[in-house]
Task: inverse folding
């Protein structure tokens, strides 16, 4: 039980993800079939829908914006700060920090991750691994959105007896950018407001918040 | 840390598989 409790955050989020994705597939299918009926086209089943570009573009466009948000947040909080926010380092700590603070190289502990103890190119790469992985997932998700979005968009054009777009044409089309930007703006609002709300508002017991009695101008270490 | 490593691998695998599927589905014009 202790092992489950120790991992409850990632387990519960994973479970909620699977439930939500299944629900998205079911309501997405209902919506798709309603549109098909209106257009006088054949309905499809769940297996066909979850392997369709219509479903995949809806998944990918949200994924890319989430991973962009985290990539930007991880990277920009190295240098940018918000005094008083639990989402920020103290202003005097802005920047990469020295090896002693990072417990890197000669300052690594015996149980530090192997690349942190080794240093060199391996340690350097590991020092950036979180940003690199999040950025790669962002770029791949955005690419997946483009590839599947084109097919889904062409299907709509086909219903209207219009010629299909190539990928290059689709990447310049407002549909691609509308899907992209409507997700980016919401992520940026959520992050920006969280950063500043965390200065003045509290959630007792949450590591995402300062302790209730911490003064507004105090930035937690 | 064993369960944590399993969860890490599950998340990573899920992301890789879904993205790979998306590219295959999109490229095949489904």
Result:
């Amino acid at each position: 039980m202790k092992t489950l409790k120790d991992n409850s955050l990632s387990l519960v989020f994973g479970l909620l993800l699977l439930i939500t994705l299944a629900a998205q597939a079911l309501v997405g299918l209902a919506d798709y079939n309603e549109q098909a009926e209106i257009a006088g086209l054949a309905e499809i089943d769940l297996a066909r829908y979850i392997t369709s570009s219509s479903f995949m573009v809806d998944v990918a466009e949200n994924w890319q914006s989430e991973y962009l948000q985290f990539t930007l947040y991880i990277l920009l909080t190295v240098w940018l700060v918000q005094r008083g926010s639990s989402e920020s380092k103290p202003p005097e700590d802005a920047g990469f920090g020295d090896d002693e603070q990072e417990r890197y190289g000669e300052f690594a502990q015996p149980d530090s991750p192997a690349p942190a103890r080794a240093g060199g190119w391996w340690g350097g790469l590991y020092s950036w691994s979180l940003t690199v992985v999040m950025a790669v997932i962002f770029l791949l998700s955005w690419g997946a959105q483009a590839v599947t979005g084109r097919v889904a968009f062409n299907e709509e054009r086909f219903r209207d007896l219009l010629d299909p777009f190539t990928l290059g044409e689709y990447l310049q089309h407002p549909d691609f950018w509308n899907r992209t930007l409507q997700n980016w703006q919401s992520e940026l609002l959520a992050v920006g407001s969280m950063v500043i709300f965390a200065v003045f508002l509290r959630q007792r017991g949450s590591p995402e918040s300062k302790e209730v009695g911490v003064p507004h101008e105090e930035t937690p270490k | 840390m064993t369960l944590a490593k399993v969860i890490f691998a599950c998340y990573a695998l899920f992301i890789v598989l879904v993205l790979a599927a998306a590219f295959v589905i999109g490229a095949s014009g489904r």
Summary: Chain B touches chain A at residues 2-4, 7, 10-11, 15, 18-19, 21-23, 25-27, 29-30 (CB under 8 Å). The mean pLDDT of chain B is 96. The helical segments of chain B are 2-27.
